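Q: Make up one entry.
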Amino acid sequence: MKKLLLTFFIIPTFLIAQDNNNYNNDLLNNTGTELRINYHTENKGNPYLYDEWKEGYLVINDTVISPQKKIQVDLEKGELIVGIGEGRGTIIDDKAITGFAINKDNSVNKHLYIRLEPSQFENRDRTSHFYEVISNLEKTNYLVKEVQKYLYDPNKSRGYQTENSLPMEWKKRTYYFIKNSSGKYIKTKLNKKAVLKVLSNKNKEVKSYVASNKINFKKEHDIVKVLNYYHSL
């Protein structure tokens, strides 16, 4: 997994295989389901990570980088989508895709994703799925998250007698998972009590580090600092 994360940050030339274009074409033509992307619907917002296509790349079997001009994530269904034409995309469900990245508004920062299997969680009642890595200078994968979008009806909160005058809204909910001493991911909340409970086997050292470094448990990258320290003990 660390090999994959290093690949995300540094893309050596030798990782871009000579037959990458052929593989990419086969991937887009023979897997997944084709669909149309509609960013502007009657609902407020949309189910996607971004309001438009972004550039990025796929990671194939942890070794090959496949650059993509159009890439997107459906946060309602948890699906990776690659653009194949004007307003069209294909859902990529090939297990050979072990990760992917989507550029943000600049080329330095990226949304980084890795595929995690049920065996990598303390609670195995999960499916093979992509999770976003909370990246940092140390390039560790101790904190990952899953962001979902769902349709919310604002008219319900106004009473049943009120006319349905407000459009449905796409809203987010986020789930965090941190890696424990056994290398398994555990679902947690971003607060001091929840995080320290997972790290309780090194409670004294971690509490001392938190106090000395003025850690804010509402900030993702502060928690990454704590996890990096914890796993270095």
Q: What stands out?
A: The first strand starts at residue 34 and ends at 36. The radius of gyration is 20 Å.
